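Subject: Protein entry, chain in single-letter code together with its fold tokens

Area: Proteins and the way their chains fold up in space.

Attached in line: The record itself begins immediately under this heading.
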Amino acid sequence: MSSYALISEHRDRALTRRPPGPFIIWGIVFIVIPLWIISYPETTVRHNFKPFFIYASQLSSLIGFSLFSLSLILTSRLRFLEDLFGGLDKVYKMHLSMGKSAAIFLVAHPVLLALRWVPEDLTKALWYLLPLHRRVEIDLGSWALWGMLVLIIFTLVIKIPYDKWKISHKFMGFFFVLGVAHFYFQGISFSVNPGLRIYLALLSVGGISAWLYKSVFFDLVKKKSRFLVTEVRRLNANIVEIELQPKSKAEDIIPGQFYFFTFLSEDLSAESHPFTICDETEDGRIKIMVKALGDYTNLLNKIIKPGIPALLEGPYGKFNFRTTKREQVWIGGGVGIAPFLGWANYLFNNPNEYIRAKLYYCVKNVNSATHMEVFMNLEKRLPGFHVQVISEEQNGFFKAGDLPEIQKKEIFICGPKNMRKAILKQLNQLKVPKKQIHFEDFDFN
């Protein structure tokens, strides 16, 4: 029998509930507003000149600071965060949203202060936005803001190689430290409201600790399993299947989960990449599929061979067919077939007569559909499972409207970004409830 871990009934029910993470995280952000309202007579510099800009500027800085801190905490890959948000991809999506929002609120802080001098002194207003003040503690805030903006530009606008981006992104925490220094070196008194002082202190410690943990200590303290590549099978010109054997005890995985893989070869950078487990044997061997999509995976496909060691971090992922007993539709394309292949291998070794699912395997042509023997064998073994290949050349693209009673089914999608977006658009037009649609999304552009 496979060593895939069975999920308890309690956890299955928990996965169907709406994850509380977004409510908790935004609640932590906006609790600063009532804290500020209680404190502002003491904590805001008193100005008779356009006080609105002073008050709005300070409030925007507090909200931006909270968002900045929490965005750093969300990068830590702590397991409880994945549970709170219903998947690591959801955590990263929230991190990206909070980073963008933090930039907006933090930019508003000096802009609102600069607007005090409009239209009386436009030159002073423009210079106010630059780190050219007479007080170092104010310059620290400007440097923190401009540093953060530059890194966000390299994330969202100017694309650089992933390994270079990953190194540059580690400096985000350094600019957060400058922001913390800017806050505390100005000597603003929070004595009237210790709640606000404690709130800001906790966010400061939390953000800095998360940054140090992820950027400096992560590889030292995070438990990783050692594996060795034992077999390489080239499925076509772009996709390779890699089998790995454990050299140390690995955690039990749930079908459809993924690990972050670091292949230890002098020809590859030390960066880690997520790959879904397609199969696990009784002796703990696992298989993954890798498609040549970027610089790293192109090189990996060329040089991977038996004997190369690998470090695995995880497992992660909440893409799980066992969250419902409803009739299911599985839609996979490209290497997005990997989690469904993992499910099929698991079900073949652990037959579940209650499963009712149809897999739509979307490919460019019939010959590019891999591992069909696995799905065909499962179809013979489980009466409730069926597979259908959707060939673009022969059938065109998948059409959700062709599925009878689609609104009553649970839908699982994994495939290229364009395919997923097109299917989600169709499902939205058909008014399929969002709670019945499941996918993991690591395309953040």
